């Protein structure tokens, strides 16, 4: 049974079966959009594989958010870094859960 990906047809790359093309980090052709489980191409078809896909996507998403944080810290006029705005130890990039509410997306 093919997944319902018609909503994504004009947004991301799909394979000939209508599944979303992803890399090893479950990243699609759109930055910040990940696909896991039976939605993605080359899926093994097992629940445990979908859980592994989710873990890979979570790691990729974490790295992406950290890179956005680093870019924001380096840009001129960016103000205080997210990691220091809440008064925590704040070394390096902030964890998304520690960002002030106005920065959550």
Biggest pleated-sheet summary: none
Q: Which whole number gives the mean pLDDT?
A: 77
Cα end-to-end separation: 33 Å
> Low-confidence spans: pLDDT under 50, at least 5 residues?
82-96, 98-105
Order of helix and strand elements from N to C terminus: HH
CATH H-tier superfamily: FAD/NAD(P)-binding domain
**How many DSSP H or I helices?**
2
What's the gyration radius in Å? 17 Å
* Percent in strands: under 5%
* Structural class assignment: mainly alpha
CATH class: Alpha Beta
CATH topology: FAD/NAD(P)-binding domain
What number of structural domains do the residues give? 1
Taken from the alpha-carbon principal axes, the silhouette is flat
- What is the annotated CATH architecture? 3-Layer(bba) Sandwich
Q: Report helical residue fraction.
A: 25-40%
Work out the number of β strands.
Answer: 0
Explained architecture:
By secondary structure, the chain is an all-alpha fold. The protein has a single domain, classed as FAD/NAD(P)-binding domain. 30% of the residues lie in helices and 0% in strands. The chain contains two helices and no strands. The radius of gyration is 17 Å and the shape is flat. The protein starts with 46 loop residues before the first helix and ends in a 20-residue tail after the last helix. Mean pLDDT is 77; it is low at 82-96 and 98-105.
């Amino acid at each position: 049974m093919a997944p319902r990906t018609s909503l994504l047809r004009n947004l991301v790359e799909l394979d000939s079966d209508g599944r979303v093309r992803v890399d090893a980090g479950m990243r699609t052709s759109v930055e910040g959009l990940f696909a896991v489980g039976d939605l993605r191409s080359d899926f093994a078809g097992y629940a445990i594989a979908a859980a592994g896909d989710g873990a890979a996507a979570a790691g990729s998403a974490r790295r992406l958010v950290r890179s956005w944080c680093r870019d924001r810290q380096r840009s001129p006029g960016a103000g205080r870094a997210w990691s220091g705005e809440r008064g925590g130890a704040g070394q390096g990039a902030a964890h998304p859960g520690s960002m002030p509410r106005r920065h959550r997306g």
